[in-house]
Amino acid sequence: MNQISEHFEAVKKQASTIKPPSKLRLIGSSLLVLASVLAFIIAIVCFFIGIIVWIIQYDTDVIFLIAKSSFKGSIGGWIFAILIFRSYFKDTTKFKNTSVLRQDFKMDILPQMIASTYGDLKYQFDGIVHEDHILESGFFPPSFLTSLKERWFFGDDYFSGKIENVDFEFCELYYKTKGVTISGWAIIIIMFTISISLLFRSDIDLPSLGIGDDESFFDTLGESKQKRVEQKTDRTKVNQKAFLYGTKTNFRGFFMYADFHKDFEGIINIRTKKKFGIPKMFNVSKTMNKIRVENASVNKKYTIRATNTQMAYYVLSPTIVEAIDKLSTRLGKHLSMTLKDGKLYLIAPMNKDFFENVTIDKNSISVNTIEDIQNDLNAIRDLITTLNISNRIWTKA
Amino acid sequence: MIWTYNKIVKNKNQIRYTIQNIDVQLKKRFEALPNIATTVKKYLTHEKDVHSDIARLRSQYQASSTREEGLGLEQQLSELLSTIMVSVENYPELKSNESVILLQRSINEFAAQISASQRAYNSAVLTYNDSISVFPSNIVAGIFGFKKEEYMSIITNEQERKNIDLNTYL
Fold first, then answer.
1. What digits encode the pLDDT tens for the residues A356-386?
2. ipTM score here?
3. Are the Cβ atoms of A318 and B117 closer than 8 angstroms?
C-alpha cells in the first residue's frame, strides 16, 4: 500500500508543475483577427472611395496609400494571428495529452490495486474485448456511408475473468472511422453536379483531365501510395472530428460482455432514446417486436425490441428492469444493452477516462486519488451485482 | 379507417397469441408434475401429504375446463411447491442431491415462464386497450364493437422465486 501512496504523492507533486497554456495568447490572437478584419474593411472602403475620387478627377494618392497600407496590415495581422493560434492549439493538444507517471501507474500500481480488489483478474492496459463480441453486440451496424470508410475499434484498460462467479470482459472502447465525411460527400456531389452541368455547356472548353495517360496515372498512384505508407495514422487519438476527410472518433465509452444468468435463445435490444454520435449507431431493427415493460421510467428512456415476446419477458424480469433503471440513473441515459443467446453486452458512452492517475480538462489538470481509482474498479463489480446476473437461480448451470 | 381497423385486429390477435402461450406454459408445468412427484416421493418420504396434493392438483387441472380455473390451480401449485422448497431446507443432505437441484430448477423455470407469458398478455392487453381508447381509432373501435379486455393478475411474483436461492447449492 505504501508504494501506491508514494506513487500518488509523486503524481501530485509532478502534476502541480504542469500548467495549461496561457489564454493570453488566445485573447491576443483574437484581437489581432479583429484588427485585421477592421483593416481589411478600411482597405476595401478606401479602395472604392479612391475609385470614385479618381472618376471625378481629384488627387487619389493619399486614399490609395491608406487602402494599400490597411490591406498589407490586414494580411500581416492574419498571418500573425494564425501563427499565434497555431502555437496555442499545439500547446493545448500537448497539454491534453499530458501523462504523469502513466507507465508506472498502468504497469505496476493499477495491477496491484486490481489484485487487492478482485484477486485473480486479467488486466491489460492496452487490451480490448474480442472484436467478435463487439460486432455481435450489434451496437455498431455499418451504415452505407460507414461501409465506405475504414473502421476499427481501439481498446484501453481491458479486464477479464470472474467477478461474483460471472464470466465477463470489460474495456474502454473507441470506435473510429477514416474516410470521406458527410460534408465531404456533399462537396463531392455538388462539384460533380457542377461538372456535369458544365459538360453540357458546349460554349465552354474544358481542359483535358489527362485520363488515359497511363504513365502519369501510375506515377501519381505510386507517389500517393508512398505518402500513404509514410503517413502513419495514430489510431489511439480520442475526440477527433473530421470535416471533409479524416479520422473520426464516433464512440468513446465502456463496453462490457458478460455471461447472463438465464439461458435463452434470441435477441433483446435495449437502446437509449437519447440521440448521440451517429444516430444510426445505436438504432434497433424495427422488424423486431416492440416490448413495453412495467416500468414507466424505463419505457420513457429506452426502446426495447426482441425477436420473441415471451422470451423477452422471461429474460427481462421485474428485477432486471428495475436494475436497468438504476444503472441508467447512475451511468447516464445513454446506456444501452443487447441480450443475445444467454450473453449480455452493455455499452455506455463516457467523456472521462477511467483508471487514470490524472484527469486533464481543457484548462486544468486534476490528480485522481486512490479512492477515485478504487471507485472506478468497484464500478465493474457494481454493474454485475446491480444486474444481479450472479444470482443463478434459473436454469443456467 | 382500414389501417386503424387492421391495427386493432392485429392487437387483438396478439392478445389471443399470448393467451395461447399461457396455456402452453400451464400445460408444460402440469405435465412436469409426475417428475416432481417422483422426486418428492423418493427423497421427501416424510412429506406424504405433499405427494398426494400434487397428484390431486394434476388430476384437477386435467379436469379443468376454463383458463381461470387452470390459473387458480397454478396458484395452489406454486404455494405447494414453495412448501416443498422449505422442506428441502429442513433436510441438509437433500441440498446437494442432483435430482432435488434439478427439481428446484424446474420449479423456478416454470414459474418464470408462466410469469413471463402473463406479463406478455398484460402488455398485449395494454396495447389493444390503448388502440381502442385513443382518438380517432376509438371511433373505428365503436363502429366495429371492439371492447376493452381485462388484465390478468400475475400469480407468481419475483419475490417468491427469489426465496429459492439455488446459488448456495451450486
1. 888 887 778 888 888 999 988 988 888 888 8
2. 0.77
3. no
